[in-house]
Predict the structure.
Amino acid sequence: MAIVKEVRGYTPVIGKNCFVAETAAVLGDVEIGDNCSVWYGAVLRGDVNSIKIGNNVNIQDGAVVHTLYQRSKTTIGNNVSIGHNATVHGATIEDNSLIGMGATILDNAVIESGAIIAANALVTSGMRAEGGWIYAGVPARKIKEVSKEQQKDIIERIAADYIMYASWYDSNDTDRTK
């Protein structure tokens, strides 16, 4: 069973039809919407500030979502994919965005709706990634506009695929209602 633990008087709230893997940890002030998945080894640590996650979000294996004490919260919109081993720390990820594998998003950064952050990119503190663009590199920089095909094939398809993947797992060990 996943680690879902109260910290400092805050108990995580997990929406309907969510899959939280047995080795995932969801701690403290964390609110997860409906049809989400938190995969193996992922950590959502809402111990020092809040983490709010919308609907149809997938937090893939090994990803870490955290905040900065009294200085930054993490907000993740709807239809967002957070890739394997990515780190989101005190940032805002707007709807219909994708954070690639191994990417790092730092405090007070904003990823606007429709942006793609490439694998291993570093979005520095306070940076704003414009919606509809792909960002890559260390530090991340705008490299290419997101085409309609990329919007459908990367952002929309991956979010939908993870809802399907989660349906393959037995949900009896997780409270799937708010």
